[in-house]
Amino acid sequence: MTGSNHDRNRVGGGPVEVLPFGASDLCLVRAVVRRHARTAGLAGDRPDCLVLAVHEIAACAVTADSEPAVLRCVPRVGRVVCEIHATREDGTCLRRRAFPRLTDKHETPGRGLWLARALCDEVEIAEGDDGVVVRMTMTLVMPVRTALAESRGPEPDGARQP
């Protein structure tokens, strides 16, 4: 299920982009997010970070035989917002994998959400009657905490600065 729909309501910096997608459309999801991130003005490696975070959540939201999920890219003033909405059936998948817990010695669900939280400035999960929405946000200006950490450079093993 491919295709892109531009909502004409403007929220901040451009049209809301809506993309229903299935398991075979993850490359299209990545392309839409990359274009959205760069158009919005994310710099450096931040577009790639957002693409990876959204991909990880999107991959959890769909399987080969599941209902399509929906990607929404919402331009906002000073930030980039991408949402993955999974229907109730797929929402169950997202909820199961949302919080890390060891299910067997070879699988640790939750790595996608952990990665999204590590890469994005903000990740929110909302569960409703119609499914689960995971919202990933990145600011256009690097947060101070990240800028300070990068300016310090790598820390020696065992040394941690406040």
Short descriptors:
162 residues; alpha+beta; disordered N terminus
Low-confidence runs (pLDDT<50, min 5 residues)? Answer: 1-12, 97-106
Number of helices: 5
Strand content bin: 25-35%
Structural classification = alpha+beta
Main-sheet strand order equals: 1-2-3-4-6-5
Mean pLDDT score: 76
What sequence of helices (H) and strands (E) makes up the elements?
EEHHEEHHEEH
* Terminus-to-terminus distance: 48 Å
Shape: globular
**What's the gyration radius in Å?**
17 Å
Largest beta sheet, briefly? 6 strands, antiparallel
| Helix proportion | 25-40%
Please provide the count of β strands: 6
List strands and helices in order, with pairings.
Layout: E1 5-10, E2 15-21, H1 26-40, H2 46-61, E3 69-76, E4 79-86, H3 88-98, H4 111-119, E5 122-128, E6 131-139, H5 144-152
Antiparallel strand pairs: 1-2, 2-3, 3-4, 4-6, 5-6
Helix pairs in contact: 1-2, 2-4
